[in-house]
Batch of 2 targets.
Target 1
Amino acid sequence: MSLNTFCYTGFDNLKQMWLRKYESSSFQKDCEYLWNQVRPEDPIPAHLFGNMWSQTWEHLSDFLAPYPNATMFDVTEALKKKYTQDKAGVTEMFKVANEFFTSVGLHDMSVSYGPKAQVVKPADREVVCHASAWDFSNKKDFRIKMCTNVNQEDFVTIHHELGHIQYYINYKNLPETFRQGANPGFHEAIGDVAALSVNTPKHMMKIGLAENQAGISKESSINYLLKTALERVAFLPFGFLIDAYRWKIFDGTIKRKDLEYEWVKMRSEYQGVVPPVIRDEEDFDAGSKYHVPGNTPYIRYFVSHILEFQLYKALCITAQEYPANPLHECDFYQNKDAGAQLKKLLEAGASKNWEIILKETIGQDKMDASAILEYFAPLLEYLREYRAKMNYPIGWSKTAFEALVKRE
Ligand code: X8Z
Ligand code: ZN
């Protein structure tokens, strides 16, 4: 319809014409008001994340990929094609991970997934399947216990566990008291640093898990960063939550009669998730997390998820992969200088205060989140623009959880 026709009909534009039947000049505003009344701003039900504790969210990356037509870099399918879903296939994945460490000049760890280890779930008995790495403190026996499946998540966990083993081997000659991570967060960070490098599309192409022609474009980089953020950034509030909750129990702030209520409340505050069904004090959902009945401190994982980016950046600078390229593209595979820098940190164990070890190895004496922020900066920019365009609200209702947990 041309402008002239509008003049003829008496309307300024088609919008006015379409809305005429509502006989109200405020109709658009009224609709916006109604939308705001029903717009969902509640926390997200916890069963939607594909992880029993909603601690990492990367299983949503297919649904949330900003550019569904660009490459996704999910290597689960490639792993399943390449490796059999049994002990032989799983052992191959360990070999690939081990080779990353040896390529930078670190120790061979094949003993840790050899005959004495348990790398797949035994068929004949119940075992604790939560992955772990063990130092037998005799300088030669180191073992991994894991019910490994062939998928990307477990491929990352393999690197995580080998990071522990690499630490054990490097500090094995120190006196017993010093045979620990510089602090517990360091121990958790080592394998994750390797996984940051291994997960890069560039590296996955090198080891034949992503097709060489899989184009790296601006779009595919944003997809990759979102997937990584769903894994590592979404973890941060969870990493903090578990001990923030236990510290309050230990110092008496949380009373025994409120264990479930306070758990649901803090989970809503920190993670923005709520239980999908109503809970009461007969439930103790925190107890479903391995480390809670296992009495293992958890803040170490929050620490490691910040520290690993700081270490990764330092190694990438040493390997001259950064700042020549964006930080998230850095692969320090086969770089002996980066390996030597990491080795120095590992060999020190807990023989000095961790801030001194950090200073002597990467030249910084404080833990600092600027590396993780820098890593995700292109994603943050994308999300800011997207939010401005879509007018997305930030945050969630801080009281919605109350409807989902009964208080005594
Ligand atoms: O417990 C672990 C490792 C063993 S130290 C598999 N992690 C935490 C968890 O699974 O809750 C690694 C990431 C966080
Ligand atoms: Zn660990």
Target 2
Amino acid sequence: MALFGFGKPAASAERQIPQHIAVIMDGNGRWAKKRGLPRPAGHAAGAETFRTIATYCKEIGVRYFTVYALSTENWKRPQEEVDALLDLFRKYLREAAETMAARGVAVRVLGDLTPLPEDIKRLVQEVSGIADTLGAEAATASLCINYGGRDEIKNAVRCIAKRVKDGELALSEITEDTVSSALYTAHLPDPDLVIRPSGEIRLSNFLLWQSAYAEYYFTPVLWPDFSAKDLDAAIEDYGRRSRRFGGVK
Ligand code: FPP
């Protein structure tokens, strides 16, 4: 099966489609446990859901789709589970390298890639090289790997502090844009809608700076069970909200 497919646009053309949707793919372990399966089976099912929902996002006109695939804290999990996640990244990045040019979806990886195995780093380079060649009409699917919002902000502060120390930047020139441009997401707009399945109601260090004005949507559905219908429900809910960005309407 292709990683990202084209399909018919969703029927309800009137609805308000967020430009950027971000998802905390939670509930894989519970999904596996309910079925008497090992946890890695839940992640494999979750990766299939990523494929389905990324494809659907492209179909309905969501331009940016970003998922939390491995946090800076997830390395504490049993080695077998971490290895299974790394294998999934290998599999999906290889598929992305083969299919994304034809599908018009630029796959990007965000996070501190330093501790990743060398073969995965090479795959990430290959995939981002192909993504760079895609035109402006391509959608973007970003996988956050070894990502942590605080870690990202700390790295941005270091980078900006160094520019100040080196005399490249004056303190008075530091703006919110300076910070945004020093984050892994520098090339992305902020998320409009952040979805967390599985019944947990917290951010878990995901896109902390970027989600300052995002709308949040929480659902008890476990990520491997999350379907296009569930995304439609989230988008409908989003469409009913009045975004004020601190102003009045
Ligand atoms: C959280 O659920 C999920 C993760 C830590 C990993 C998410 C990764 C994937 C779905 C695979 C992604 C791979 C690609 C290529 C997209 P949990 O395990 O903490 O669930 P639980 O709370 O039910 O235990």
